[in-house]
Amino acid sequence: MISASVTETIQFYHLDPMNVVWHGNYVQFFENARCALLEKIGYNYPQMDASGYVWPIVDIRVKYVGPCTFGQEINITATLREYENRLKIDYLITDVKTGTKLTKGFTIQVAVEKQSGEMLFRSPDFLIDKLEAMM
Question: How far apart are CA 43 and CA 105, in angstroms?
Answer without folding.
Answer: 21
